[in-house]
Design a protein that fits this description.
67% of the residues lie in helices and 0% in strands. The chain is mainly α and 83 residues long.
Length: 83
């Protein structure tokens, strides 16, 4: 649900990166609160945080690339795999 909400918010702001980044920060605060209340597991929070960092720091071209990258939105993206 959280990843989908994040993606939908970003897609609504596909051509307005700065506004999208503000929405990412607002959503981020909501999931952090949900995590502190025990509603979100640590692993989900980690994935959301990794995505939000990249989205918030992205420049125009990077923003568009991230939004178009289907792998970026898949569960488990960017997780650390133990060898």
């Amino acid at each position: 649900m959280w990843i989908q909400d994040l993606r939908e918010s970003c897609e609504r702001n596909f051509d307005r990166r700065a506004e999208g980044q503000l929405e990412v920060e607002e959503i981020r605060n909501k999931w952090r609160k949900a995590h502190s209340e025990g509603e979100i597991e640590e692993s989900l929070l980690d994935g959301l945080e990794r995505r939000s960092e990249l989205l918030i720091e992205a420049r125009d071209s990077e923003w568009s690339e991230l939004l178009d990258d289907e792998d970026f939105w898949k569960a488990g993206w960017g997780s650390k795999v133990e060898e």
